[in-house]
Amino acid sequence: MHEIINHTLFTIGGDTPVLLIDLVTSAAGLGCVILAGRNSKYNFWIGYLYTVLLFLMFWNKHLYASLLLQPVSLGINIMGHYRWTHPRKGEESSLHPGELKVTMLTWPQRAAVLTAVLVLAGLWGRLLSLLGNGWLTGILPADPVPYLDSCVTVLILAAQFLSALKKWDCWVAWLLVNIAQLWLHLSVGHVFMPVVCGLYLINGIVSLINWTGLYSRKA
Q1: Which of 6, 16, 41, 181 is deepest in the core (most CB within 10 A)?
Q2: Structural domain boundaries, residue 82
Q3: Is-contact 177 152, C-beta < 8 A?
Q4: What's the structural domain count of the chain?
């Protein structure tokens, strides 16, 4: 398994390896968000594969907060798959009967989400810092960027949860995730993922516009 994860397809500039796991993960991630941005329930099937691939990739880079996120992400993905395809009375899309319609958070709800993200990211970052620089020294390599890793982790959880509920606000959260992830991947030497994050940003903007139209049509 280790050999597969670290298999180098080619190098850029003679010394920057492009790994198979990075390329496959990038393709799966793009497919997932493009389908989600187009309001397709089939994004969840690719999302299941994407979760597994991310787990392997983050294990390879010792990004433990992002790694531990994946089982939680899988649970949220399953919940979202169910919610999108089993709307309650009054939640059905006007364009797609039997599917959940797009809604928005209230301003108090947005303030609560933001507060939770900041508090949890700070606490998780502190815990990772303690683990890597004391408690687990010599057992596991230290997380190279614990606070940034934690910030990305909590933002992704928030974005995924809002996506599962089909909230328009999820795309604002995803845009913040993409910016933070771009910084994170560059800091640990990923090659393809920073490029993918740039594509995610473009898709996030397009999706935000698309979901604005869906919200106005109660779709």
Answers
A1: 181
A2: 2-216
A3: yes
A4: 1
